[in-house]
């Protein structure tokens, strides 16, 4: 029997049968122009339903309603209904104001002042919850809109139901399947941002946590979902779809991501690179205060030596010597503080570091995240992350066909998602083959990322900055024996032994192995077709020569 009563109540929503009044949504009078696009907080919104407050314009059709349900569902409506019996003249004024622009009412009317026509469907949905016990919303934004109106209309239980629905949405729509570098799959409809991103974009709809503590768990869930969606710095930078999403984020979402203690990385250098990547695309959308806020989230004392000695000083010099509006002057740090941070980060433990800390407390804001020693989660573990590189048979044939005595040809090993990033730098692979050579050379090149190549920057293509980079990685070339793949060559690097020279784009250099790929026979000059590939037979399969670059966790 209780179930039948519940079903009967559900069927009463938007049904005129036995309705005791109509809820009429009207435009609130004297709404400031800026409030038509910037939503006011509920505490700022008028809850006065007098004719002096409500305008004459009705928003949509009246909603048939039932007095008992409204009384039980909302203290606001209970008080409004009670005033009918106390002040009949005010009730008459309400009906006259409503009937001036709406169809003549057959039932008493409860007027609800709204800030704009766009609010009406969500106010209607909030009242619908009192009948159905269900939040009628399909997206994160719609749920937040309904929650907003539920707070305004004081619909019992609706805000909590919205919060529960939001947490569920964020948990269901925020996972990334992270495997190899550049192979994270972020689930999100094509025509809508991922749910955690959509949530962060709805800043004007989010309640003040101090005024509405019950919303705290939703905020926590949203930040956790945002981190789960983007994974970590390596996944973002090495996955084209996520990288594109990053570039489209507003500053407030980037701030939430970089400010999270759960956002993993291989090193703080890559965090700075991620910010530089976003800043290069969005500098014109930021002001000095926004750039300061974002840059203050990078934990500079945790940068590696290459960034401390090459990248950070160049950014500081760009900031001091270029105009504040210049794109290359985006990182707001002085040369003296950049030098101090480098000295502090590399100081030996004990008296030397304590002296630097004592001095810094008197001169700099040591509470800033620039000086934080709290480590972000290390995103590399176990066997590390590998990404395949390849040289097409077509390119190989073309280069081999150009060989002559005394000539060496270089072939670029391409990665499916572009050059991978790690430790704040980009990496490229190359093969070199010479006429009559019995083996091909394999090189790994380290490059200053293009994100720093801004007009006028010391890190740009004309700059002279240089850094010697060390990182833990393994570079292999594949060899085929029938259908069985093996590693014909494996080269390893250790972070403890820096040997890769990184310079701005256009000034590439690398290290490698002269005899990494022994050829089946010496490479002839200007070979044609199959003749040119005879020595490469063990390496080429299905039209490609392949290998793997694996980023390894710190020892």
Automatic annotation (TrEMBL):
InterPro entries: BACK, POB1-like, SKP1/BTB/POZ_sf. Residues 243-310 form the BACK domain. PANTHER family: BTB_POZ DOMAIN-CONTAINING PROTEIN POB1, OS02G0260700 PROTEIN. This is BACK domain-containing protein. It comes from Tetrabaena socialis.
